[in-house]
Amino acid sequence: MFFWVFWYSYPPHKQQQRDPQWDNRQPECILPQTVIIHSSRSSQSSSSSLTTTLSQSNSYIPPPPPPPRKPTFTARLRSSPAAMLLGIIPLLTLGLGFWQVYRLRWKLALIDELEDKLGREALWLPGRINVDKLPEFQYRRVLAQGTYLPSQTIYVGPRTYDGVHGYHAITPLARPGGSTIFINRGFVPKDFCPGGPKYAGSPLALERTGGEVTIEGLLRQSSTRGTFVPENEPEKGVYYWVDLPLLSERMGESAQPVLVDEVYEGHLGLVAEKLARGEPVGRKAKVEMRNQHAVYAATWCVPDWVNLSGTDGL
C-alpha cells in the first residue's frame, strides 16, 4: 500500500471553467483542500475515501471566539459599594434641598402673619391672662400698666446691639388687680450691668419702686435654650436665656409666665444718648426672625445641579 498526497487546486488555464457558485463564496470560506488518495485492493474503497475527504475539507470552520474582555475601571466602579454610596448622596442632598425650600415657604408665611399682627391696634392686657392663647397673640402690640419691681431685675445675656456688648434687662411689672408679668426693657451696655465699672451709678441700679407706668410692647413667648447655651444659674443671678416658667415660679403665685418686649421708636441719635447714660433701649417694632432657609437650600441643591450639568457630555 502506498499514499499519494497533493494539493487540490485549479490550474490557471482552467479558471474559466470554475463553478460560479464556488467563485461567489466568501474568501474566508475558501480553504486549502487536501485530497488523500488511498491505494488499496478495492477501487470502491478508494472512491469512498476520496469522497469523504473532499466533503470534510469543503466544510466551513468558524474562527475561534475572542477572549473575554476584562471589566474596565468604570464598570468596576459602578458595581462597587462606593459607587452605590455616591449614587445615594446626590439623592439625599437633593431631598434636603427640597426640605429647605419647604421650610422657606413656611417661614415666609409665618413672617407675613406676624407682620399682619404687628400692624394691628394695640390691646390692653387683661388682669388674668390665658397663657394657652399666647401663641395666637405673639408679636401683637399690647399695653400694660403697673409698677416696676426694680429689686427683681435680672440681666440676660450676653447680647449685642450695633456692635456694643451688653445684656437685656428684664423687670417684673406688678399690675393692680392683675397678675405680675415680665417686661424686657431692652439692651443695657455691659459697663452699666452688675459687675461693670459704671453699674453703681446706672439708672437701673438707682431705680426705686415708684409710681405706675404704662408700657407698650410686643407680646412674646418663652424662649427655649439652644444646644450650646449653658443652663441658667439663678442662685448666682446669671441668666443666659429667658426661662419664664422659672421666673414666674420664683416670683410666687401672683406671677404669670408672660413676657412683653418694650418698644422704643426713637431715632439713632436718641438711642446713642440712652446707651451713653446706661438706660435700657427697647426693641424696634418689627418682626425679627432668623431666616436662612434659602441659603441652606442653595447649599444642598447647587452641588447636585453642578454634577448633573457636568455629566451632560458623558
Shape, per Cα inertia axes: elongated
Q: State the end-to-end CA separation.
A: 71 Å
Order of helices and strands: EHEHHHEEEEEHEHEHH
Structural class, by secondary structure, is alpha+beta
Q: Counting H and I runs of at least 4 residues, what is the number of helices?
A: 8
Rg computed from alpha carbons, rounded to a whole number of angstroms: 47 Å
Number of domains: 2
Largest sheet: 5 strands, mixed, barrel
**Can you count the beta strands?**
9
In percent, how much strand structure appears in the residues?
A: 15-25%
The percent of residues in helical segments reads 25-40%
- What does the average pLDDT come to? 79
Strand order of the largest sheet: 4-6-7-9-8
Report low-confidence residues grouped into runs of 5 or more.
1-16, 28-43
